[in-house]
Every structure is written in structure tokens, then in C-alpha cells.
Write a structure and sequence with these properties.
This protein folds into 2 domains: 3-122 and 373-379, Enolase-like, domain 1 (2-Layer Sandwich), CATH 3.30.390.10; 126-360, Enolase-like C-terminal domain (TIM Barrel). Helix content is 40%, strand content 18%. Helix 1 packs across helix 2, helix 2 packs antiparallel against helix 3 (100-120) and helix 9 runs parallel beside helix 10. It has 13 helices and 13 strands. Helix 10 (290-302) links the parallel strand 9 (279-280) and strand 10 (306-307). By secondary structure, the protein is an alpha/beta fold. The longest helix has 21 residues, at 100-120. The protein has helices spanning 56-73, 81-91, 100-120, 124-127, 149-161, 183-197, 215-227, 242-251, 264-274, 290-302, 315-326, 342-345, 373-379; strands at residues 3-13, 29-38, 43-48, 135-143, 166-170, 202-206, 230-234, 256-258, 279-280, 306-307, 334-337, 354-355, 358-360.
């Protein structure tokens, strides 16, 4: 079997309610998926998480794939996905080997794993070494609405009642009204959420990029959310401040989570060596694809570090995160985006099945998803 084509497709979804404010609600913005075709009629799907405000990341990745990576994979055997990954990584010497280059590699790598599973009639999790479980507990991934603390807390209560293991709130509905800018308001909303979801449901707090904390302020905020038994404090510092993260993790009892902005196993190895996080959050659509994320998971396992996939883009990455979680002995939790978004809700023909707060592994080979071509056509731009 040989690869015959790689087609990158830029997608765009617009929430008219918040037109003019970028990436609000996790809805407005760009993403990119790829379809990889073979001479045996088997195709696979992958994703690059490229949600930049003006589409520049999406179009840059499209160009990288078409000009740089496609010529290097065309004619190769997709089942040898790890060999292809290493070849592409060498080629990205000219692209910086992080960021856009890794996004592009992520999309291709995940699509190749999808193809290999289909060709061998194996689920992606089986192909990755074995399926440890048929389902994975979820946490509902939500956004703070700083104008409506009570409504925000009720959203958390909904998923606690549905049996989700946890609820995570982050960022804010719009950049101009973020969580993390007013200590009193922040504590009020965290307190209300804990009251609504009860003592048994995990509560996670995701700071995000709408604010920029220093280490002392992050410690102060960490001790505040600790009072409400937070399961973790996420992305409290800039991604490059690995030493600051180490200081933060050492100062707090609440676990510190980070990693959605790290790339390849090398970045995660650095974070582990510095003790920068208690919870690592690799994202298959950013950091190198399914096969590279599997290496990160194994590294975390060797070093006894907790990990949970970051998943906030499209349905393709949800499928990748699911298979990675159930193919690992210490996979225990998966992020499941709940803010409405057609890139998640409508992009696949068959909805993901959730039972008692647990995501079920689909029956089909590969990723087990079928892309809805009508929705793809509607969302595709450029």
C-alpha cells in the first residue's frame, strides 16, 4: 500500500453572537483537517489544531503540507507511520521543528495511524499496543462566564448529575472579561461551582491566555482554588516559564497541570526533568500526532507522572484522545468539550457515545469515525 495524496482542508466556524471577538466560547475560529489517500482506496483523517484568530496558522500549515511534507510522504507505506514521522521531523529542520511544523506533522501522523488501523482491521488503540478498557471517564470542559457566576455553576451541576468524573472551567467567554483578573470575583465563581457540583465531582480550573500571571500571584490563586478542593490548576503561567512552573508546583498542594503548548517528546522530557508539572496535558493535534503522543505517555508512565489529553478542537482529536487514553495502562480521564461547536458536534456522522459520564470506544477500525462530507463542505474555506 502506498500514499497517493495528502489533502489539507482549512475549516472555519463562526458564532454570530460573539462576532468580532476571536475564539470566544471555543467556537469562532479556524481549524485544519487532512485526508490521506492510498492506492488501495483506504483513506485516513488527521487534525492540526490551528485556531489562530485570522486563519494565518491554518493557511501556513496548509502550505507546509502541500509544499514540504506531501512530496516526502507520497509513495510511502502508511503502515510505517513511525518511520515516516522521523523522516518528516528531519525535514522540518527548515521550519523550526516546533509550532506550525509540528501541527502539520500531527495531522499527517494521526491520519496514517487511522489508515494503518483500517488496513489491518484493528482499532487505533489495538494498533498502539492494546486496548485496556472499553470506555474512559470524562471531564466536561467548559468556560467561565464572569457575568453570570450562577449560570456558570449550573452548567457544572448539569454534568455532575450526568456522572462526569469532573468539570473544568477556564478562560472566560470573551477576552475582555476573563477569569483571573479580579480575585474576589474569581473566588466567588469557584465557590459557587464547588457548591453546585458537590464534593464528589472533580473541579479543575484552567487559567488560559487571557491573563498573564506571575509566579507569586499564581501561588496565591492556587491556594485559593485549593480551598475548594480543586483537582488541578491548569496553564497558570506562560508556556516558556518551565522554571516558574516548577516553583509553582513545589509551592502548592493542588496539582499543577500544563502541556497543551509543548511539542514532541523532547519538550515533555524537559518539563519532567524540571518537575514543572504534576499533570501533563499533551495534545495529539499539536505536539506531533498519535504516535508521538504515545511516546510522551510512555515517558510519563516511566517517570510516574499523571497525564490527561488536552482536547479542545475538532471531533478528529476527540477520537485520537480516546484511543490514546484506552491504549495506556494509566489512562484514567479524557477531556470532552461541551461548549457547542459544529467542528465537534457535527463533523462526524455518528455522535460519540457517552454512558454515565464515560466515552465509549467506537467499534470500527482505525479511529472509528466517519467524516460528514456535507458538514465538511459547509465549513471548508479557502
Amino acid at each position: 500500500m502506498k500514499i497517493t495524496n495528502v489533502e489539507p482542508m482549512v475549516l472555519y466556524a463562526q458564532d454570530d453572537e460573539y462576532e468580532g471577538e476571536a475564539n470566544v466560547g471555543g467556537y469562532t475560529g479556524y481549524q485544519l483537517v487532512v485526508r490521506v489517500d492510498t492506492d488501495e482506496g483506504i483513506h485516513g483523517w488527521g487534525e492540526a489544531c490551528v485556531g489562530s484568530e485570522n486563519g494565518e496558522a491554518a493557511y501556513a500549515v496548509k502550505e507546509l503540507i502541500e509544499r514540504g511534507l506531501l512530496p516526502r510522504v507520497k509513495g510511502e507505506n502508511p503502515i510505517e507511520f513511525r518511520k515516516i514521522w522521523e523522516r518528516l521531523y528531519e525535514a522540518t529542520y527548515w521550519y523550526g521543528r516546533r509550532g506550525l511544523a509540528t501541527f502539520a506533522m500531527s495531522a499527517i501522523d494521526t491520519a496514517l495511524v487511522d489508515i494503518a488501523g483500517k488496513a489491518l482491521d484493528l482499532r487505533a488503540c489495538q494498533l498502539l499496543g492494546g486496548q485496556y478498557r472499553k470506555e474512559i471517564p470524562l471531564y466536561a470542559s467548559l468556560l467561565f462566564d464572569m457575568d453570570d457566576p450562577e449560570g456558570t455553576a449550573k452548567k457544572g451541576e448539569k454534568y455532575a448529575r450526568l456522572g462526569y468524573a469532573g468539570t473544568k472551567f477556564g478562560w472566560g467567554m470573551v477576552p475582555s472579561k476573563p477569569f483571573g483578573a479580579d480575585f474576589a470575583k474569581d473566588e466567588e465563581i469557584v465557590s459557587l461551582i464547588r457548591e453546585r457540583i458537590g464534593p464528589k465531582t472533580w473541579l479543575m480550573v484552567d487559567v488560559g491566555r487571557y491573563v498573564n500571571w506571575t509566579v507569586p500571584y499564581a501561588i496565591k490563586m492556587g491556594r485559593m482554588v485549593q480551598k475548594y478542593d480543586a483537582f488541578w490548576l491548569e496553564e497558570a503561567l506562560p508556556q516558556d516559564d518551565l522554571d516558574g512552573y516548577a516553583e509553582l508546583a513545589a509551592a502548592l498542594d493542588v496539582p499543577v497541570a500544563m502541556g497543551e503548548e509543548l511539542y514532541t517528546v523532547y519538550d515533555f522530557d524537559d518539563a519532567i526533568k524540571r518537575k514543572s508539572a504534576d499533570v501533563l496535558q499533551p495534545d495529539a493535534s499539536k505536539m506531533g500526532g498519535i504516535s508521538e503522543m504515545k511516546r510522551v505517555i510512555e515517558l510519563a508512565h516511566i517517570n510516574n507522572v499523571m497525564w490527561v489529553p488536552h482536547n479542545w478542537s475538532t471531533a478528529v482529536n476527540t477520537a485520537a484522545s480516546l484511543h490514546l487514553s484506552v491504549s495506556s495502562p494509566d489512562g484514567f480521564l479524557c477531556e470532552f468539550k461541551q461548549e457547542p461547536n459544529p467542528l465537534v458536534d457535527d463533523l462526524v456522522k455518528r455522535k460519540f457515545e457517552v454512558k454515565d459520564g464515560k466515552l465509549q470506544v467506537p467499534e470500527g477500525p482505525g479511529l472509528g469515525i466517519d467524516i460528514n462530507e456535507k458538514v465538511l463542505k459547509k465549513l471548508r474555506v479557502g
